[in-house]
């Protein structure tokens, strides 16, 4: 398969991530703004300055200086007309386009990303100051990925098109009723989930500063006609099956399927927070290939299976949730990955029982593969 053809396949898969991400955010956002007055939104432009995090020894030679760039945001505001809006302190939903100069134009080039996100408010209602936690998932384009003939020094990104994750602590200070000052500090990650190697990934830390302008109603705070009851504090058992694709470290090599099944239990602490844990098993054909390459003995199924236990947290926003897992393997044969694994992503309750899942499995700062799946909550 040619590199161009496979890049198109990668693009289609990652575009699917963006489309699904936009759809999931939109389902919540549309419910939030459909009854609000029309033409109420915010345009925000911000500059970035920061550095590439040296999370692996093989990244050091690529860091040539500080990175910088800019972004533009289109932000939907929740009005307060829905009863859950004040519970979450009037969250915002946005779409961001960002451009970053990576300070190594000949090897890394530039990064361009587009992604939907939500601003989760951390402080209570204030007319002047908002403190937010920003969570976003989307698509990034790296202009100079690895190429065995023309760019062999780039050993962190193997494809033009990559998944993109942004986590940011931000603030918005209302200078006037229309103008606001936006500032924050954040972490961004770009990788293709080992769909194409090399895939150490880019981890970037930046500070940002800019301004925003409020269009439409400057005081978009309405009253809900009813009061939401206290959240039921109960356990939520559910099971999720996932599928992913992984390439081994040899660039342009074959692709291998990975499968996983997890049994989970969350406890509702509030409308926003769920804590819990679980147990999971995985079968990875890439692991089987590695074992076959390293051994002259017959590889059995039990040699390829991995088992792990985990602690979990999820921030919930209506039917949307953002899971974070921290786990440890209790059974595995191959020694490539660390003893610990981690997971971040997005889930959506399609019905009261059916769960749509997009998560990224990582081992510390190194992405393993994207997990696509469905689940069932009992």
Characterize the structure shown:
The protein is mainly β and 378 residues long. It has two domains: 3-215, Porin (Beta Barrel), CATH 2.40.160.20; 235-377, Porin (Beta Barrel), CATH 2.40.160. It is 13% helix and 52% strand. The protein has helices at 3-33, 84-87, 285-294, 301-304, and strands at residues 41-52, 67-77, 92-101, 110-121, 129-142, 161-174, 179-191, 202-215, 235-247, 255-268, 273-284, 305-317, 320-331, 340-349, 354-363, 366-377. The strands form two sheets. Strands 1-2-3-4-5-6-7-8 form an eight-stranded antiparallel β-barrel. The longest helix has 31 residues, at 3-33. It is flat. The two termini are 43 Å apart. Residues 6-12 have low confidence and may be disordered.
- Widest β-sheet, arrangement of strands: 1-2-3-4-5-6-7-8
What is the rounded Rg?
22 Å
Total beta strands: 16
Residues in β-strands, percent: over 45%
CATH hierarchy, class of the largest domain: Mainly Beta
Give the overall average pLDDT.
83
- Which secondary-structure class do the elements indicate? mainly beta
The global form is: flat
- Examine the coordinates and then state which fold CATH places here, giving the name of the CATH topology of the largest domain: Porin
SSE ordering: HEEHEEEEEEEEEHHEEEEE
CATH level-two architecture of the largest domain: Beta Barrel
The count of helical stretches stands at 4
- Major sheet: 8 strands, antiparallel, barrel
Distance between the termini: 43 Å
Q: Nutshell version of this structure?
A:
The chain is mainly β and 378 residues long. The protein folds into two domains: 213 residues, Porin; 143 residues, Porin (Beta Barrel), CATH 2.40.160. The protein has four helices and 16 strands.
